[in-house]
Structure formats: C-alpha cells, structure tokens
Amino acid sequence: MNKDEEKGIEISPLVSKDSKPSAVLDKLSGEKQDIKDAAFWLFMLFLASVTMTVGNKYVMRNWAFANTLTLMQNGTAVLYLGIGNYAGMMEMKPFALQQWKVFAVSSFFLAMQILTSLKALPFVAIATVVAFRNTCTVVIAVIDYFVFGNKFNQNQVLSLALTTAGMILYALQDINYDAMGYLWLVGNSVATIINTFWNKFYITHYTKELKIQTSYGVSFIQQVETLPIVGFLAIMNNESAAFGEMGPLTMAAKSMIFATCLGGVLIGIAYPKCFSLVSGTSVVVASTANKAVSILIGMWLFGTQLSFLQIVGLLICIAGSLWYALEGKRK
Fold it and tell me: Which one-letter DSSP state was computed for residue 212?
C-alpha cells in the first residue's frame, strides 16, 4: 500500500477500465479535423469575398464591360449549379412555371445589384461601397419596423443609429466623392433593398413553408434568369467588342477576370460550409473582417486615400453594422 492509499486518497486513472482508448483518440482526432475544416473554409470565404470586391474593381478599371463580366460570372454559377445537380451533389426539386415567374422579379433586381456595383467601382473607393451596404441594413430595418411591424430591442436601435452616424460622417468627409459613383451606389442600394424583401418572402415561402423548392433550386432559377437580362444589356451597350478587347489585357487582368468568375461560385460554397462548421456569430464576424481587409487591400492596390474623419466614420459604420448583426443573432 502506497502513501496515497494510506491517506484514503482515491487516484483516478486517465482512462477508466470501461473506457476505450481508441474511442477517445478518435474523438480528439475528429475535433482536430473539424478545426482544420473550419479554418480552411473560413479562409476560402475570405479569399472569395476579397476576390469579388477587390477583383471586380481591378477588372472594371482595366476592362469596362460590366454586362459581359456579369454574363461570364453568372454563367459560371449556372454551370456549377447545373453540374452539381446532375451529379447528385445538390438537391433541386422539379421546376414549375410559377417558380420561374415569381423569381423573375428577384432575378431582375439581382442583375441590377451586380451591374450597378460594377459600374460604381471604378469611381469610388471600396470603403464607400462597404459604407453604402451597411446603410442598406439600416433602411431595411426601418422598413421592417414601419411596414412589417418587426420589433427591435434597445441595442439593435442603438446599433442602427451608430451605423447611420458613421455613414453620415464618412459621406460628409469623403475626399474621393464622385457624383456618378454615388449615383450608381444609390441605384445599387434601391435594388438591394427591394430584392431583400422580395426574397425574404418568396424564398422562405417556397423553401421552408411549402417546401416545393430547395435553396439550390432557387439560386439556379435566379442565375439562369439573369443571363438574358445582362445579355440584352450587353447588346444594347455595344459590348460586342468585349472579348476582342480582352486580348491586349495584361496577364494579371485576364487572371483576375477568371478569378472573379470562380469567386462567385466559391462564395456560394464557402458560406454554407462555414455555417455548418462554426456558429453564425463567427461567420458574421469573419464577414465583417473580410470587408475591412478588402478596404485595406484596395487602399494599397489602388492608392486610395481616406481622411482621418473618413476612417473614423467608416469604423463607426462597420462597428454599428457588426453590433446589429450580432444582436440579431442573439435575439
């Protein structure tokens, strides 16, 4: 009998007689793999987000064919979704004519969202785009409250007020102000707000209430229906020379066009993966961080300068938007 036994102290072994060491090791191995998977897909989300923000601005400054670029990006998404469905990797339920009619509206506004964003990017800083997107959150919340009767707690109201104050401070001190760029962003905001409420009702109605279509199916319908819209606009804007103009571009510009086509697909894969591996709050924080990094890369790559008050306003705007998103998750 040892001294511990004499004192009546019970010594617990690291692994009890009834436990299986292999099961413990398997569990630890599984947890490590989950951490690796989460890190990988959060990085993929970061890569896709930065590519679509910074990459689109880079492309539009060197190859100003917004409709053709949208046609290529959305066409790549349609190809990916179609192949995924055919291979059995993505579930899509039978398509009815009514579905195509209903989502034709959201497809139109989706096309307008993409095009107005692309048109604005050559004129404004990436920080301005981020500030406008955060302002859309405020407008959507206000409409939600007065039109649809959605209630907000005190912290949500304060966060929305903070976002608004930050946007006003940023706009008043915008040393990169461009009337045309702001006009395109206003159009982008209108399209975003309308599309948000249309999708909020109909996507929920079709995928969760009636369950007659999946989210992949809805995305496929929307992407397909954008193609004739942007194709028509490309013809009307004399973009027939777009591919001919691609020849003289630098290899970096050509590579970026290709990267943005893949980026749209990657961001559609990365978001669901991230939500399945980490909490929704973590995804919100990661998305906000991605915006901040995109702004910094844009400042370095395009030589964008922001005044001190602009930076303060932008930080307030982003902080308010993040606070609102986190409060929404908690609520």
Answer: -
Instruction: List, in order, residues 6 or more apart from 109 with CB less than 8 Å away.
Output: 191, 192, 194, 195, 198
Query: Residue 85's pLDDT band (boundaries 50, 70, 90)?
Result: very high
Is the pLDDT assigned to residue 148 strictly greater than 80? yes
Which distant-in-sequence residues (6+ apart) come within 8 Å of 118 by Cβ?
A: 56, 60, 66, 69, 70
Distance of CA 189 to the CA centre of its chain: 15
Measured distance CA(216)–CA(25) in Å, rounded: 37
Could you give the 3-state DSSP secondary structure of residue 178?
coil
- Give me the pLDDT at residue 245, please: 93
* Per-residue confidence (pLDDT) for residue 21, from 0 to 100: 61
Reading the block at residue 296, the tokens are: 């910094």
Q: Nearest CA to 284 among 331, 321, 317?
A: 321
Give every CB contact of residue 66 below 8 A, 6+ residues apart in sequence: 60, 115, 118, 119
Distance CA 286, CA 284 (A): 5
Distance CA 226, CA 317 (A): 32
Residue 320's closest CA among 181, 207, 169? 169
Q: Are 112 and 229 in contact (CB under 8 A)?
A: no
pLDDT band with cut points at 50, 70 and 90 for residue 162 = very high
Closest residue by Cα to residue 80 from 218, 227, 220, 203: 220
Higher pLDDT, 100 or 36: 100
Mean pLDDT, residues 72-79: 96
What is the reported pLDDT for 328?
82
* C-alpha count within 13 angstroms, C-beta hemisphere, residue 111: 24
Please report the pLDDT score of residue 31 as a whole number: 65
